[in-house]
Model the fold of this input.
Amino acid sequence: MRNRLVCIGVLCVLCAVQSTATWAQNQPTSGDGPAFATEADVKLSTIRSLIGAKDYDNAESLAEEITRESPGMLDAWMMLAYTRTLTGKFALSNDAYDVALEYGADKKEIYIRKAYNCRRLGDVDQTRECYRLILEDDASNVEVLVQFGAYEQKTENYDAAAELFMAALDIQPEHMQAIEALAKTEEKRGNNAQVKYWLERGISYEPENTKLLKRLSLVYLNEQNYSLAIHYLDKVIAIDPENTAAHRNKGIAHYQQGNKKKAIESFEAVRTLGGKTKGLYGPLADCYRSAKKSSKALEIVKEGLSEDDQKAWLYSVWGKILEDQKNYDAAIAKFSHAVALKDEPWSGYARKQISRQSQLKKREAMIAAQAGME
Done:
């Protein structure tokens, strides 16, 4: 393996030298003769080739060699810092960036790169300091404000994140990344009114942004505002008819509204499109039972049980199917399965149903006895 890497390195060096020589021949002349690439330029080109070949260790070694031979060469220090990042030497990379800064490197670029290294080092204070130093010189830099906000969001400093995203939106009101991030931040802060505000604002700029439409529909679904959830899910489906998650959530909303016919349509769309069916069998089986389609309901029950999904719910539905058939002993057996699974709320529901089946069985026996007496 080592010999292979050496061969790759040699080939890269030869290619780099050849390409650099060609580059030098094509340069405009200065004075009486052509402008030739320096040895350091050739080595920098070689480093780029080594990086392309993912030979980061040799690239770093060559960058160190250039900085020793040409200590005032800015590009060499930038390349050394970069190769050290690639080899995971983040603190040493920042040291090299500091030297590059002394030789006139762009402050914004340096601090952005240092911020990345500090994040990898887990140094929260230094990461924040890098972003602050950029904003000191350029307070209206939207991309840095958003990047800084994303970092604060990741570190769960949601108040600071919201402030940074708002600052970015004050400058660039239609910045979608900031809008989406601010909606997420407000969700973390538990401010649903603001979540809806920012998602709706984003949708006003991009009406066919299915990502925002789905997120807003979920907010309303969790708030049990099923009509508005369906409203936004319909928009998603109109744009993306094969979006199985949207069909699934629409089915759940219809189910919760008690509109089981429409719930069946949405759930079956998921099955037809080959979407995720986990968590779908229970409500779908219940919908078919309610629609007096016992055979189809039982088919869904058995399919769900074979998938090991929502078993307590499905055994409860099976029990209700048997109750509809007045087969109370068999119903009790299915409800007992649900109880044994200890999966609430369905195990609790099944427990109550066992008592109910016993009462129904007694009542049926009494009715039969009275009919016999007549």
